[in-house]
Task: inverse folding
């Protein structure tokens, strides 16, 4: 186990490392239904899916997806990264969230709402 100063250094490095920002969708491969969303950390979304699969629990997903997951199982859920971007260093968190919200709306228009959760 690393000593306390090493752990502190690792935490600091993690917090300062750039995250991949973007829009993604969870797709139920059996029903073709999907959920479009955004995040400031794409890797965390993949981790969320991996965790759900390893535990067999659907608690990490949006409540709208849970009935389908109960029917088809977590294995039917896949992750698709739709778009990523590198925020400018001068962008505030609110500006990034605003840009992400715009991208989500554009992707929802492009994909349609017929099969959307």
Result:
């Amino acid at each position: 186990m690393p000593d306390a100063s090493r752990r502190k250094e690792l935490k600091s490095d993690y917090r300062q490392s750039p995250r991949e920002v973007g829009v993604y969708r969870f797709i139920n491969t059996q029903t073709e239904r999907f959920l479009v969303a955004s995040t400031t950390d794409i890797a965390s979304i993949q981790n969320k899916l991996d965790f759900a699969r390893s535990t067999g629990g659907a608690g990490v997903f949006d409540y709208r997806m849970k009935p389908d997951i109960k029917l088809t199982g977590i294995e039917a859920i896949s992750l698709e990264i739709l778009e990523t971007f590198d925020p400018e260093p001068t962008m505030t968190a609110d500006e990034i969230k605003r840009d992400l919200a715009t991208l989500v709306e554009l992707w929802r228009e492009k994909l349609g709402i017929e099969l959307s959760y």
Summary: Residues 93-111 form the longest helix (19 residues).
